[in-house]
Write a structure and sequence with these properties.
Blueprint: H1 5-12, H2 18-31, E1 38-42, H3 50-55, E2 59-64, H4 67-80, E3 86-88, E4 100-105, H5 116-129, E5 130-141, H6 143-150, E6 154-158, E7 162-171, E8 176-186, E9 192-202, H7 206-215, E10 219-224, E11 238-244
Parallel strand pairs: 1-2, 1-4, 2-3, 4-5
Antiparallel strand pairs: 5-11, 6-7, 7-8, 8-9, 10-11
Helix pairs in contact: 5-7
Length: 251
């Protein structure tokens, strides 16, 4: 996964306010009474959220399925002077050697889970590594975004060193958007390296997420809009979701 894509991912994401994103996760964890303790970030990618959260005092562990993304993350953390363990794991089978105060799944991580069963597997795995009273926090693209904003749209952009063409197609029966990217990275002179990337993201309803979280033993389930503490609007493009593992709540 992401073998060549990992090397250019951060260059494509230069406009993203990761510090603001980290600040909102910090505010959510404070709201749920989570101390600046042990936090596991699933689907951590290149560590763009992991590193600023570590700088805030959290004892971060980064988990991702892609060794190439984890390599980029470890290089960035080293340059930032952050001692963060990055672990290659499937978050559906999350297994850590110590319990966490919080588990995060960031930046559409749960959109890559294709079924209720895969969501259930992740929620149960997260519960097993959480201490009692710990929190599960995630953010994902909404069904509205996948259908109306990304679905069946073509996006392109370029600067002097990199360009991309992004063609999307929404599949109603599978409730997913198929994304095909062609990325062109300038080499020496006028030559370009072409990187092809294909991904699928799945739309999950708030009702399904809420029901599965409660089925897996979580309480205090709440949905928030994109980096604000109010309930999400009908055309919200991103949901933040918070839940708690109750005291005496081992699953």
């Amino acid at each position: 996964m992401y073998t060549a894509f990992a090397s250019v991912y951060d260059r494509l994401m230069t406009g993203v306010d990761y510090q603001g994103w980290a600040n909102f996760y910090h505010a959510l964890m404070e709201r749920y009474g989570i101390p600046r303790g042990k936090v596991c970030e699933c689907a951590c990618g290149t560590g763009s959220l992991t590193i600023p959260l570590a700088a805030m005092g959290y004892q971060m562990t980064g988990v991702d399925l892609s060794p190439d993304m984890l390599f980029e993350a470890s290089q960035k953390a080293r340059k930032a002077g952050a001692m963060i363990p990055f672990v290659k794991q499937d978050m559906r089978m999350l297994h850590l050697h110590r319990q966490m105060d919080a588990v995060l799944c960031t930046n559409d991580g749960v959109n890559y889970l294709c079924s209720d069963e895969e969501l259930r597997q992740f929620f149960l795995a997260a519960s097993r590594v959480l201490r009692e009273g710990g929190g599960l926090f995630l953010d994902l693209s909404t069904p509205y975004k996948l259908r109306r904003v990304l679905g069946n749209h073509f996006i392109g952009d370029e600067d002097e060193n990199i360009a991309y063409l992004w063609q999307n197609r929404y599949h109603e029966q599978q409730n997913c958007v198929e994304m095909n990217l062609a990325i062109f990275v300038r080499q020496e002179g006028e030559t370009y390296l072409r990187i092809g990337e294909q991904q699928r993201q799945y739309a999950h309803t708030a009702e399904t997420l809420d029901a599965l979280l409660r089925e897996c033993g979580f309480t205090d389930v709440a949905f928030f809009g994109d980096k604000h503490m109010e309930a999400p609007g009908e055309k919200e493009c991103r949901w933040f979701v918070a839940a708690r593992k109750p005291l005496g709540g081992a699953v």
